[in-house]
Amino acid sequence: MLLHDSSRSKTITSKIAHMLALDYQPFSIVNDRGFRELINFLEPRYSIPSRKHFSKTVVPKLYADTRGKVAESLQCELQTAQSFLWTLDMWTSRAQVPFISLTAHYLNAEFCLQNRTLDCSHFPGEHTGAAIYEKICHLTADWKISALLISVPVYVVSDNARNIKAALTGKPVEHLFCVAHTLQLAIDNAVTQVGMGKILKKCRSIVGHYKQSSKASERLHSLQSKLGLPEHSLCQMVETRWDSVYIMLERLQEQKESISADLPNTVKDSLTTQEWRLIEGYVTILKPLFLATKELCREDSPTISIVRPLLFSIEGYLKNYLSLHSGEYGSGVTLARELSKSLATRFQCIKEVQTYLLASVLDPRFKCVVSESHEQLLAKKLIVVEAKKKAKLMDPQGNYRVHKPSANISPQASTSAHDLWGCFEIKSVETKPRIDQVDVVENEVETFLQESVINRTDDALAWWKNNKTRFPRVAPVAQHYLGIPATSVASERLFSKAGQVVTVKRQNLSPKTIEKLVFLHDNL
Predict the structure, then answer these.
(1) Which residues of 437-471 are buried (b: 16+ CB within 10 A; e: fewer)?
(2) Residues 67-93: pLDDT tens digits?
(3) To bridge 193 with a disulfide, which of 2, 125, 338, 389 should be the other Cys (CB 3.0-4.6 Å)?
(4) Positive or negative, the Cα torsion across 237, 239, 244, 249?
(5) Which CATH architecture fits 79-178+486-523?
(6) SS3 362
């Protein structure tokens, strides 16, 4: 029999704890017959600790050790980071326990995006602006990443909730609204204005019919096979996710032939020819916004830099659609028109924020392609100022520091002020014409902007990693802005994982245990 404190026993216990966190397994699995038989087969000498031992001792220790390693790594990489960003959001579990999330994001010196889950913290009480800010201060102080403690600019991305806006207004951070959430609000507004509720209700009813009836589902799959259609199931929309509207309509359009062949025999209120035409128009209009959302929610490439180019492309797409279908009725023209208005209203403030402008200009895929002439001049000026600050060419008063040239007097020249020509020779070296370091920064920025953009599908971060030595003064500015995510999707994904921890059978988990399991899942 292995001793509990033996190296082999400790290793197995640690691996079981890893499995519990990584696979959302309940602590009770250690009591399950199949699991115990498996462990006994693999290592008969090992005695499995109790469920309580794992929940009260093993997992808390693993959490403390892992948190310490993450904190150490975070502090080390912050030494070379040029900016730092948090995302935050709030969530209530199925047990009606409230939590607040905190994730961290930055670009390291090698232009690799770093995305870290820091907290899924219990947050009881009123969620007022003051309470939220106090909680944020507490969480960031624990990690030693308070905006008052770190030397680089700090940003926060969240949804458009008023209480979070109130919490961050006037604080030493730049608050950016989640672009994906703003896009959803714009689409929701347009959908409401055109009265899509009736047709969406009918579509949901049809999807529900095939979801709830096994016979109807079998008929549909049989028709799909006969008609040579993809054998896909229908997708139901979810009220809180606008992209599920597009997914539902797109799948209905794909299966139009099979549904039209089956529905008249089973459902009285089937879709009319005009409604099918509207669905086709809605799918065509919403598709680019669906693709844009997927781009914005990526975690492996810069996203804030694509906001302005995406908005430009979406606006152009809708404008072209309206031009092509201006004289048509029932093809989704009204939705396209309302969507254009809603996007213009919702994103006007984002277009005025310099962070988005600078990020797109510093992305080698976009640069100044979608910027007006006055925006290009402003961006160039701001990048030059940022580059000088980061290169420490500017003192706290805003004056430029210019390094004095080293003396370069020929061997024949006298360097003594007591010689006849000594003072003259020293002065002549000091006033020798040179390219000022201030001009070097401006020239470097100009050179970067004048080069052609790379392919839109190329890796912008890989480009900067390979070219940072060519643009040593612009690269830190790019590192600053390209590490900022455009959305708070990291926090939303964190809560999706938390939802798998707090299942129907695990509603009684303590908030502290939930915090530990969610953190471990993302950091092991």
Answers:
(1) eeeebbebbeebbeeeebeeeebbbebbeebbeeb
(2) 999 999 999 998 899 999 999 999 998
(3) 338
(4) positive
(5) 2-Layer Sandwich (3.30)
(6) helix
